[in-house]
Write a structure and sequence with these properties.
Helix content is 34%, strand content 22%. It is built from 10 helices and 13 strands. The strands form 2 sheets. Strands 5-4-1-8-9-10-11-12-13 form a 9-stranded mixed sheet, sandwiched between helices. Strands 3-2-6-7 form a 4-stranded mixed sheet. Helix 1 packs across helix 7 and helix 7 packs antiparallel against helix 9.
Length: 319
């Protein structure tokens, strides 16, 4: 089972006529949990969710999508709201209402003493890691867990970060204990501004992870894989050209699909990950790209099923 940790919030999506907003379940690790489950892989969500009616919506959506909820703490704080603005040709823009909300209030005392024995992977990142006390709670979890594969997606929102240098120091600490880093070019623009993408990826790889994966939008995705002898394997996979409705949840779906593929193929352990071949990594990237392409063809974060991904064909997807 994969455990996704972090924020669970309500995305307030603009109505087409501009008269209001539609509340939809969201949050990066939350979306990723939904994606993993729809792809047929056991997954649980770890976080603190409100008992308000938005919290009920969030929990019920997890249950409906067969995401394990035993690791969720319920509390009386309000749910986080994220108002979204969609403009043609631009990435979605967000305004977050997080002060005193349930998901940001996760504390170390809320964490389980141990994770379920079947936990093979832990995923974390996004805005949860810019807020306290939730950032410190998740940090303590990943620093104590030494058995599961750890995967991080910073999914950076610069306006949520008050002190860039302090954030970067913590971020590099997370990367040092992670096995997989999934990161976008927009994230790199904040972390290592001006550095070529592959140079920035190599810099992260030197901190200790086995794999660094960068999503490149319409250009596909690239991965750098660190071999035991210090060599680096470079792999690229394209996207499938589908009509784009919006890109909400694309990165989350990509991340979930990548981990789902690894789990399904028996590669979500540190030993198995170390033995990953170039061909397998290319296949994993292309599977993740197909899932992300499908979610972009729909409105909002609505990840595809495994059957939908496998039915989507595209010529040569070698690395």
């Amino acid at each position: 089972m994969i455990v996704c940790c972090g924020e669970a919030l309500i995305d307030m999506l603009p109505l087409n006529d501009g008269t209001g907003f539609l509340p939809c379940p969201g949050g990066s690790p939350y979306n990723t949990a939904i994606a993993i489950s729809r792809l047929g892989t056991p997954v649980g969500f770890l976080g603190r969710l409100s008992t308000d009616f938005f919290g009920e919506l969030l929990v019920n959506h997890l249950i409906e999508n067969k995401v394990e909820t035993d690791l969720i703490v319920r509390s009386g704080e309000n749910s986080t709201l994220a108002f979204v603005r969609l403009d043609p040709g631009r990435d979605p823009r967000y305004v977050f209402y997080t002060e005193g909300t349930a998901d940001r209030s996760l504390r170390p005392a809320d964490l389980p003493i141990t994770l379920p024995e079947e936990t093979s992977g832990i995923l974390f990142g996004s805005i949860a890691m810019t807020m306290e006390p939730v950032a410190s709670a998740i940090e303590s979890l990943i620093f104590r867990e030494h058995g599961a594969v750890i995967s991080v997606d910073p999914n950076i929102r610069p306006f949520m970060i008050g002190n860039r240098e302090a954030y970067l120091k913590r971020f590099e600490g997370w990367v040092a204990v992670a096995d997989i880093v999934k990161i976008s070019e927009a994230d790199f623009a904040f972390i290592y501004p001006g550095a070529p993408t592959e140079t920035a990826m190599e810099q992260l790889l030197r901190l200790g992870p086995r794999v660094v994966v960068t999503t490149l939008g319409a250009e596909g995705a690239m991965a750098l894989f660190r071999q035991d002898d210090g060599g680096i394997i470079r792999v690229y996979a394209p996207v499938v050209d589908l009509p784009v409705v919006d890109t909400i949840g694309a990165g989350d779906t990509f991340h979930g699909a990548l981990l789902s593929w690894l789990e399904r193929e028996g590669k979500l352990s540190r030993a198995a990950l170390a033995s990953l071949t170039e061909e397998e990594l290319a296949e994993a990237l292309f599977f993740a790209n197909k899932a992300a392409s499908l979610v972009c063809s729909k409105q909002g974060a609505n990840p595809p099923t495994r059957a939908e991904v496998e039915a989507l064909k595209f010529g040569n997807h070698g690395g």
